[in-house]
Design a protein that fits this description.
About 50% of the residues lie in helices and about 15% in strands. The chain is an alpha/beta fold.
C-alpha cells in the first residue's frame, strides 16, 4: 500500500552547532513514502543559513527553506505548514536528532487511530551541566508526572514532545498561536486540539534524542519563558492545561510568604519551606543518573525559574496576551 506524503516542519534560529546532526538524522529516515523537509529560518546570523543553503543545493527539492521574519517558533511552524506539500506534518526541533524510523512510526501511530502522535522527550546532555539537566528532566519531582516524559507504552495524553498530525487537521485547528513569552505553543496547540475532540497519543517507540540547555543562564531563561507561557495560556484559555504548573507556583508563593513572615520576626516558616525544598531537590540529585551537583543546580533552576515566570505572567495580566493573539 502507498504511504501518505510527509512534510517535516522545522523552525530554526541560530542552530549552527546542531543543524548538521539534525538534518542528517531527518534525511536518514527509512520512510517508504514521499518525504520533504521545510525549514523556517528566523534570520540566523551564526552560519546556520549558510549550512541550510548548502544542504538545499545538495538535496534539491527534498529540502526547502522559507523565511520566518517574526523569528519565533510558532509563526515559523505555521509558515512551513502553509507551503508544505505533505498530507502528514511531522514537527521537528533544532535541538533534537531522530531515530531512523521516527517518521515511519509517527505515521503508523496516526494510521492506528491517533489524531496526533509523538514520542517521549529523551534528554541527553552535551556537557557536564547538560547531563545534570537531563537527569533533572527525567525526574517526576522536577518535571511532574507528564506522560510524555515517563510513558512506557502507547497511551492517550494531554500533550507530546513535538508530534505528527494530518495537515488538514492542523489547518482546521488554526495552527500554533504565539504568546509574548515565545513559549507554550505546543501545550496550547494540544489543549485546543483536544478541546475540538481530537486525540493525542504518546508512543515510546517514536524515538528522538533532545539536547537540553548546557549552561545555567540559558536554562534559567528557558524555564522562565515556560512559566510565563503557562500563565499566558491561562489568560488565553481560561484554565491551565493541567494541574502541573501549580507546584512551582506554590513554591514561589510559599517562599514569598516565608520572607514576609521572617521580616516580621517569624523565621521558622521560611526555614521549613527552604529545608523541605532543598531536601526534595537533593533527592532528585541523589537518585538521578547525572552529576549530583549539576543535577541539583539544574533542578533548582527549573523549579525557581518556572515559578517566577508563572507569577510574573499572572501579574502582567491578560492584556499582552490578547494583543499578541489579535496581532
Amino acid at each position: 500500500m502507498s504511504q501518505p506524503s510527509v512534510s517535516i516542519i522545522l523552525p530554526v534560529l541560530d542552530e549552527r552547532a546542531t543543524i548538521d546532526d539534525v538534518l542528517a538524522s531527518l534525511l536518514g529516515q527509512d520512510y517508504a513514502g514521499s518525504l520533504e523537509i521545510v525549514v523556517a529560518d528566523g534570520g540566523s546570523t551564526d552560519g546556520t543559513r549558510r549550512r541550510l543553503e548548502e544542504w538545499e543545493r545538495r538535496l534539491g527539492g527534498r529540502l526547502r527553506i522559507v523565511d520566518n521574519p517574526l523569528k519565533r517558533q510558532s509563526p515559523g511552524l505555521n509558515r512551513a505548514a502553509e507551503v508544505a506539500s505533505g498530507e502528514i506534518l511531522v514537527r521537528a526541533d533544532g535541538h533534537t536528532v531522530y531515530a531512523p524510523d521516527y517518521v515511519t512510526r509517527s505515521v503508523a501511530a496516526l494510521a492506528n487511530g491517533a489524531d496526533a502522535a509523538g514520542g517521549r522527550m529523551n534528554p541527553v546532555g552535551a556537557n557536564r551541566f547538560g547531563r545534570g539537566v537531563a537527569a533533572a528532566m527525567n525526574s517526576p519531582l522536577t518535571m511532574g508526572p507528564a506522560r510524555f516524559h515517563h510513558a512506557e507504552e502507547p497511551e492517550t495524553v494531554d500533550t507530546v514532545y513535538l508530534g505528527a498530525f494530518r495537515r488538514r487537521d492542523f489547518l482546521a485547528a488554526g495552527g500554533f498561536r504565539s504568546f509574548p513569552s515565545g513559549a507554550a505553543e505546543d501545550a496550547d496547540f494540544y489543549h485546543r486540539w483536544r478541546a475540538a475532540g481530537r486525540t493525542v497519543v504518546v508512543d515510546p517507540a517514536i524515538v528522538s534524542r533532545y539536547t537540553p540547555r548546557d549552561r545555567p543562564g540559558r536554562l534559567w531563561r528557558q524555564y522562565l519563558a515556560y512559566g510565563r507561557g503557562k500563565a499566558e495560556m491561562l489568560w488565553a484559555n481560561g484554565r491551565f492545561p493541567s494541574w502541573r504548573p501549580l507546584a512551582p507556583l506554590a513554591l514561589i508563593l510559599a517562599l514569598i510568604a516565608g520572607v514576609v513572615l521572617a521580616a516580621a520576626g517569624r523565621p521558622w516558616p521560611l526555614a521549613a519551606v527552604v529545608t523541605a525544598w532543598v531536601a526534595l531537590v537533593g533527592w532528585v540529585a541523589a537518585t538521578g543518573d547525572g552529576p549530583p551537583m549539576d543535577t541539583f543546580l539544574a533542578a533548582a533552576i527549573m523549579h525557581l525559574a518556572y515559578g517566577v515566570g508563572l507569577v510574573g505572567g499572572l501579574l502582567r495580566g491578560p492584556a499582552p496576551v490578547r494583543r499578541a493573539l489579535e496581532g
